[in-house]
Amino acid sequence: MLCIFRFLAFVAGFAAFAMSGLSFAQEAQGYVQEVSGDVTAQVGAGRPTQVGKGQTLVNNATIITAPKSYAVLKFEDGTAVLLKENTSFQVQNYTYNPGARENASAIFNLVRGGLRMITGLVTSRNRDALKVATPLATIGIRGTEFMAELVNPLFLQVISGAVSATNAAGTVALTAGQVGVVANATTLGSLIPVSQVPPGVFQMPNVPLTPAPGTIPSGSPVGGGAAAATAGAPIGTTAAVIAISAAVIAGVATSSTTTTTTHHPAE
Q1: Who contacts 168 (Cβ-Cβ below 8 Å, separation ≥6)?
Q2: Which residues lie across from 31 on neighbouring strands?
Q3: In 3D, which of 58, 105, 107, 108 has the Cα closest to residue 87?
Q4: What is the pLDDT of residue 252?
Q5: Spatial contact of 39 and 64, defined as CB atoms under 8 Å apart
Q6: Domain with 132 in it: what CATH number?
Q7: Dihedrals φ, ψ of 4, to 5°?
Q8: Is the pTM value of this prediction over 0.90?
Q9: Per the domain annotation, does 249 fall within a domain?
């Protein structure tokens, strides 16, 4: 019996540890600040689900905006991202610790569509910490405000600061007020006048972006499925881990209450 109780205590502690988000669970470091229209999200190859204001962001989550829709994402360091309509944007890997900013990392993917971004503190100690990958080039951000739109080609416009666009052909740098284009993944980007930007490109919703760090709400993670079952839990805490732990506890508890009768041969 003593061994059973010890095992129960171990499994219960494991379940509590998983739910606390202190082991493999990742604390929520981003959330949906604003949403308008039809916006969905999926984690990995999971089923797309509707996105609501205040939901938290998990690594490998892809946010998708439909026509006449937009979303504003906010991260713990203050980085703010506005996604315009018909955009697909992935949070590939975001890690930020205010006490160790030199280890910060933010890697995003612009799969299609357009965005406007203002960076926060993520690049304050490491200027290469934030990147936006696209099929045509990887955008390096040096602490800035810029717009990018992937309509094949990729268009870039820097509002303040500087960005770079790197692909197999090399790197092109853009500073405040400049516009660039990357035709394909094997052609070096080039600067162009604003007059050469096609109509509709860089036409973003008139939504204010503030790069100040803020408090991450305790909303449920985007993406639905197992993540939705852990509403209020830190990002990365899977319902499966908690459910398995609970099942093990229940199973062991049931077995511990079973009475076993031993029959001795008559003397």
Answers
A1: 185, 186
A2: 56, 74
A3: 108
A4: 38
A5: yes
A6: 2.60.120.1440
A7: -65, -45
A8: no
A9: no
